[in-house]
Write a structure and sequence with these properties.
TATA-Binding Protein; Nuclear Transport Factor 2, Chain: A; 6-stranded antiparallel β-sheet; 5-stranded antiparallel β-sheet; binds zinc ion
Length: 461
């Protein structure tokens, strides 16, 4: 028998039951893991203060790991499994038991609290209506519906529930619901869809900053050896099954001939049209996760939902967020350099989407519009600030002063090699304007769009 005085123990403070016992090792035993664990449990039920009878602790499975095995038993009451009530017996590779995890609930509380509730159950037909409404809310049913009775524990109380599982498509989901048998309330709902971790290749935020060079040329979207050191391999998080660049915050499948990979590998060069999809997925997803890390998540989230993106939606040198009802999506243009090859352009447009999500319709007139431009540039500028050399972190005031000095130049001129030219990157009607040179938003900092103020003739994303 186990002597708790010679073990390490973590106690459940409410019930004074050992929840985790470790720091011991039994003698090795012969037999199957299940048999060894059952014999051990029977011997030690009292020591472990487990009040459930042995026949209610039903063997569920053995899980293997490098260091050994864990044998799992699920507690039942009245032939019904109790959610979250488990005993796990851990064996090492010599069949010595070295740890017990005990999450059982006291048998007394079960008898007191479950019996009465079970009588008040709704008819199954009514539960089916609740399930149907939930499916409608989530998408389209794509699998059969599996129902089982369970006892759900909640803050020390026990409720007989239906545990319901099904899958949906559009969007893809794998759902588990816990529905109170007495009143049909959905107590708990989870999407347990296993999302894939993909691999992608991107610029952070663009070659001008990554290579710290202002002399790069587009060469008709061509791949050149000069770009090689600018590529970064990144993780693409939570991709839905199906092999597209589609996840909780971004969906690029609006793009013609969109990227698809069974292995979730999206490694392309800039010459490949799919490269911009990877850029959009990675950068929007990263910025949204950063926003959530600040506390703006769940009910307090800001655009913490999927946004659709078309990375090659127009041949013009322009990109935009479309706030129209039913759209709320982003389009990037391919005029000049592909816009979605630059994370600062991507995040600028995402900034517009964020503002529209906070205050629908915000920024329709000149002042608000200028603020929208400023916010997009601020979001983009600060997101990639740390990737820039000190020389590129030009202060707002300094830039404004220099702009005063040089005034506006002929926008048709090439933008190379003269630092002051960076301020005239845009032409009228051309929000992220630039022709061949890669210098553009990249090093322009937050003041870029202040020029828009009082200039409603400038088209903007
Ligand atoms: Zn804009």
């Amino acid at each position: 028998m186990l002597d708790l005085k010679n073990c390490k123990v973590r106690w459940d403070r409410d019930n004074y039951v050992p929840k985790k016992v470790y720091g011991f090792e039994t003698a090795p035993r012969k037999g199957k893991p299940q048999e060894i664990a059952e014999a051990f449990l029977r011997e030690n039920l009292q020591v472990l203060k487990i009040t459930a009878p042995m026949e209610d602790l039903r063997f569920e499975q053995v899980t293997e790991s490098l260091g050994g095995k864990a044998v799992l038993f699920q507690q039942h009451y009245d032939d019904t499994p109790i959610h979250g009530a488990w005993v796990a017996i851990h064996l090492n590779n010599e069949n010595r038991i070295f740890m017990v995890m005990n999450d059982t609930v006291p048998a007394v509380s079960l008898e007191k609290r479950v019996g009465k509730r079970a009588k008040a159950a709704l008819a199954e037909g009514e539960i089916d209506l609740v399930i149907a409404a939930k499916i409608k809310e989530y998408g389209t049913l794509a699998t059969e519906i599996v129902k089982e009775r369970m006892i759900y524990t909640m803050k020390g109380s026990f409720r007989p529930v239906w545990k319901v599982k099904f899958g949906t498509q559009q969007p893809a989901g794998s759902w588990i619901l816990f529905i109170d048998q007495a009143n049909g309330h959905v107590i708990d709902e989870r999407n347990v869809l296993r999302k894939a971790l993909g691999k992608g290749r991107v610029f952070i935020p663009n070659p001008v900053v990554a290579l710290n060079r202002d002399d790069l040329l587009d060469q008709k979207d061509g791949d050149q050896t000069v770009f090689v050191p600018a590529y970064r391999t990144v993780q693409l998080k939570d991709l839905e099954p199906g092999g597209n660049l589609k996840g909780p915050y971004v969906d690029t499948t609006k793009t013609r001939n969109c990227a698809s990979s069974e292995t979730f590998e999206f490694v392309y060069s800039r010459a490949d049209e799919r490269f911009e999809e990877v850029m959009a997925y990675y950068h929007i997803d990263s910025v949204q996760r950063y926003i959530q890390s600040l506390g703006f998540k769940d009910a307090k989230g800001i655009l913490n939902r999927q946004i659709r993106v078309n990375v090659h939606g127009t041949r013009e040198d322009n990109s935009y967020y479309d706030p129209s009802p039913g759209r709320h999506d982003i389009t990037f243009g391919d005029g000049g350099v592909d816009d979605a090859e630059d994370a600062e352009v991507i995040i600028h447009e995402y900034g517009h989407a964020i503002q529209d999500a906070i205050i629908p319709g915000y920024g329709q007139k000149t002042e608000g519009r200028a603020m929208g431009e400023g916010f997009g540039d601020y979001l983009a500028g600060t997101s990639y600030y740390r990737y820039k050399t000190a020389a590129r972190k030009v202060k707002l005031a300094a830039k404004a002063a220099r702009r005063q000095e040089v005034g506006h130049r002929d926008p048709g001129e090439p933008l190379l090699s003269q630092p002051v030219r960076r301020f005239q990157g845009r032409r009228r009607g051309d929000h992220h304007g630039r022709k061949e040179p890669l210098r553009r938003q990249a090093d322009q900092g937050v003041d870029q769009d202040l020029q828009d103020e009082g200039d409603p003739g400038v088209a903007c994303g």
